[in-house]
Design goal:
The chain is an alpha/beta fold. The chain contains six helices and seven strands. Strands 1, 2, 3, 4, 5, 6 and 7 form a seven-stranded mixed sheet that branches. A hairpin with a 5-residue loop joins strand 5 (100-111) and strand 6 (117-128).
Amino acid sequence: MRKIILASASPRRRELLRQIGLKFIVDPVNGEEMPTRSGLEPVKYVELVSMHKAKTVAGRHPDAIIIAADTIGVLDGKIIGKPQNAVEAGKILATLSGQAHCVITGYTVMDTGTGKTVTKSIETLVYIKSLTGTEIEAYVATGEPLDKAGAYGIQGRGAVIVERIEGDYSNVVGLPLFALAETLKEFGVGIL
């Protein structure tokens, strides 16, 4: 089997790929400048970022399959990024409280041997319960929201603030496994 490279430092993405039995090597994009959002629709932005990550890592791995991804939250057409600190995390959670927002993951699969590249994005609707100020403070105090787009982790304690979702759960965690597995088939990589 050909070498598969995950171009991500995300422990959540590593765990998701392990969950489906994929053998891979992690080679994150470190310190590289990412494309700016200027005027791009959220879907186009995450697709562009995932493509950028794949291209950046591709040069280091001839004849390999690269998997790269980027996940964002979107509310009212605006991208919700990762909070920079606890205060910002609390503000993001207060904004999401009682609302539905969209989580979009753009992913790219690239064959560095042939140059074949597929970039797609998957959207999942997430409904956050109405949160009290005390609940927001308590959740932020756990530290979990600080490195997550949208300031919550559905796979962790954040599960108790998510009322329901419409779409792919693994997409909200950071990598849409069903769609990714279907795309990997196009590259001769079977999961089952």
